[in-house]
């Protein structure tokens, strides 16, 4: 993990900027919109960047790891619009398209002509040893009592912040395989937590 030749740092840029490849197209990061999900031990590793393309058009790039049986965001977007047109009309489809974010490009990341995914690339097709001894990774908490100490120990007050600590005796199909995916959207905005205008915040939440 951490090795990705499709992301190249721009030397001597402050703050640090990167060139990110999306299916042959290069995008330069301007700022990080959100990366909180990437800090978790388990998850999709989502990072969202405000970027500019080679023609200086500003857009949004989302980099994440999707479950291998999950459709891409562009596929879902297309199916939503196709269903609206099939059930209602093309005019309704066009109206809905104006209310949704517009995917410009997407890519299942490949490295050396191979798909960047957790089994063949990260694990190099090696099998995961599921007969491991469970390890406690943090101090007991309220969540330990809630789960009876069987599966989760979080060290936090809420269940949603927990991470699994036992993998022994799990079936192989319970291991989540993921593939590396990027999608670029036309629309961009300021994250609500960065918005400093109170009237705009109230309007968003209304």
Write the layout of secondary structure elements.
Blueprint: E1 7-9, E2 18-22, E3 25-34, E4 47-52, E5 58-67, H1 73-87, H2 90-97, E6 103-108, E7 110-111, E8 114-115, H3 118-122, H4 142-146, E9 178-185, H5 198-205
Antiparallel strand pairs: 1-2, 2-3, 3-4, 4-5, 5-9, 6-9, 7-8
Helix pairs in contact: 1-2
Describe the overall structure.
The chain has 206 residues and is α+β, with helices and mostly antiparallel strands. It is 20% helix and 25% strand. The chain has five helices and nine strands; from the N terminus they run βββββααβββααβα. The protein has helices at 73-87, 90-97, 118-122, 142-146, 198-205, and strands spanning 7-9, 18-22, 25-34, 47-52, 58-67, 103-108, 110-111, 114-115, 178-185. It has a seven-stranded antiparallel sheet with strand order 1-2-3-4-5-9-6, with helices on one face. It has a two-stranded antiparallel sheet with strand order 7-8. It is globular. The two termini are 41 Å apart.
SSE-based structural type:
alpha+beta
Number of helices: 5
Secondary-structure element series:
EEEEEHHEEEHHEH
Average of per-residue pLDDT values: 80
Helicity level? 10-25%
Strand arrangement, major sheet: 1-2-3-4-5-9-6
How much of the sequence lies in strands comes to 25-35%
Oligomer: single chain
Largest sheet: number of strands, sense, barrel closure: 7 strands, antiparallel
Distance between the termini: 41 Å
| Beta-strand segment tally | 9
Low-confidence stretches: 141-170
Rg, Å, rounded = 21 Å
Structural shape? globular
């Amino acid at each position: 993990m951490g090795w990705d030749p499709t992301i190249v740092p721009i030397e001597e840029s402050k703050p640090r900027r990167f060139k990110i490849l999306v299916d042959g197209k290069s995008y330069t990061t301007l700022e990080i919109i959100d990366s909180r999900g990437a800090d978790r031990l388990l998850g999709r590793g989502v990072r969202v960047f405000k970027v500019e393309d080679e023609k200086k058009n500003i857009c949004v790039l989302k980099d994440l790891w999707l479950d291998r049986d999950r459709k891409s965001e562009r596929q879902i977007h297309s199916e939503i619009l196709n269903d609206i047109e099939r059930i209602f009309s093309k005019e309704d489809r066009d109206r809905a398209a104006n209310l949704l974010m517009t995917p410009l490009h997407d890519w299942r990341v490949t490295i050396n002509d191979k798909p960047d995914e957790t089994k063949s690339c990260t694990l190099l097709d090696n099998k995961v040893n599921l007969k491991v001894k469970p390890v406690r990774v943090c101090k007991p908490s309220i969540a330990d009592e809630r789960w009876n100490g069987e599966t989760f120990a979080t060290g936090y007050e809420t269940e949603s912040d927990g991470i699994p600590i036992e993998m022994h005796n799990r079936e192989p199909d319970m291991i989540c395989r993921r593939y590396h995916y990027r999608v670029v959207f036309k629309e961009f905005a300021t994250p609500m937590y960065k918005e400093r205008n109170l009237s705009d915040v109230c309007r968003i939440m209304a």
